[in-house]
Design goal:
Blueprint lengths: L4 H10 L10 E3 L5 E7 L5 E7 L5 H17 L9 E2 L4 E4 L4 E2 L1 E4 L4 E4 L8 H15 L3 H6 L7 H19 L3 H11 L10 E3 L8 E3 L5 E4 L6 E3 L3 H10 L1 H13 L8 H10 L1 H12 L2 H10 L4
Antiparallel strand pairs: 1-2, 2-3, 3-5, 4-5, 6-10, 7-8, 9-12, 10-11
Helix pairs in contact: 3-8, 7-8, 7-9, 10-11
Keywords: Transferase
InterPro entries: AGP_Transferase, Aminoglycoside_PTrfase, Kinase-like_dom_sf
Organism: Oceanobacillus chungangensis
Length: 299
């Protein structure tokens, strides 16, 4: 569902937020929420998120619980939801801007950093922020009812996900063999889990004018899981050399690193079609099903 300006203004007003019509700016890249940036008559800037489908509401409720954990703890910024209903999520705009914004038409990022030569400030402050996030006590997640996986469970969960996707869509022989080699290698998997963001791509990472990371947004996938999940998008966006620099920064900031971490992240990236397939099943969108089949090598 995509709302027009009149509907956006009316819904916001019902929730106690008056916005100036001429200030509305749309970000249509999100699959779950229509995002609108707006300014009220006092000059306060707002982020307005409107659910595209009813199935995202339970996920939003979980995100609210997550934000109640992370926002008071982290040194970087996270959203503080002032309005939360089935129609609208609203919070005051954070200070940074996304490192990259997805252009839906081009299916590519519009960058605010030099993606070919990632600034030192970016990966150093990103590694520091990730290390801080991953240090959050697991008990916080348990109390909020979030998924909390042990090192033993992360591999079993991955194997189960692979099997479910294969049963539904099929998987090419080459990709399936790679997955089996990875999941069967004891030495490559981490011996700890951590509180992760779960969807830490450049569009969810805020930066300032000097490319320092200032905040994380869109926390719906946060949980206690394999830390490698928070590195995969960096690998996909910037390549292996930049990933190695991020891992070094993360380790210097106290993050958990093991000898095969880089290789494990690379193999986790090769399993990205699983997430596409699971979203296709959840959303029921035909174009997502076609995308899943292509990624799985069965189209």
């Amino acid at each position: 569902m995509t709302l027009n300006k009149a509907s956006i203004i009316e819904i916001a007003k019902r929730h106690g937020i008056d916005v100036v019509e001429g200030s509305l700016r749309f970000n249509e890249s999100g699959l779950d929420f229509q995002v609108v940036f707006a300014t009220d008559p006092e000059g306060v800037n707002w982020v307005l998120r409107f659910p595209r489908r009813v199935d995202v509401i339970p996920t939003a409720k979980k995100e609210k619980l997550i934000l109640d954990i992370v926002e008071p703890i982290l040194k970087i910024e996270a959203p503080n939801w002032i309005v939360f209903s089935d129609e609208l999520i609203a919070y005051k705009l954070l200070s940074g801007i996304p490192a990259g914004t997805i252009d839906p038409a081009a299916k590519a990022y519009i960058w605010e950093i030099d993606e070919k030569n990632v600034p030192k400030n970016y990966y150093e402050t990103l590694g520091r922020a990730m290390a801080e996030l991953h240090a959050i006590d697991h008990s916080e997640a348990k109390q909020a009812g979030l998924t909390v996986l042990t090192p033993q469970e992360i591999r079993k969960t991955m194997v189960d996900r692979m099997g479910n996707v294969r049963a539904r869509f099929g998987v090419s022989d080459k990709l399936w063999e790679r997955w089996q080699k990875w999941t069967g290698n004891d030495s490559i998997w981490p011996k700890r889990t951590a509180f992760i963001h779960g969807d830490l791509h450049p569009g969810h990472i805020l930066i300032d004018e000097e490319q320092h990371v200032t905040g994380f947004i869109d926390w719906t996938e946060a949980r206690v899981d394999d830390v490698a999940h928070d590195f995969v998008s960096h690998l996909m966006a910037f390549g292996e050399d930049s990933l190695k620099k991020l891992i070094t920064s993360y380790e210097k900031s106290g993050g958990y690193v093991w000898s095969s971490m880089f290789d494990h992240i690379v193999e986790l990236q090769a399993a990205y079609p699983i997430g596409i397939a699971e979203f296709a099943i959840k959303s029921g969108l035909p174009d997502m099903e076609e995308m899943a089949k292509e990624a799985l090598g069965v189209k």
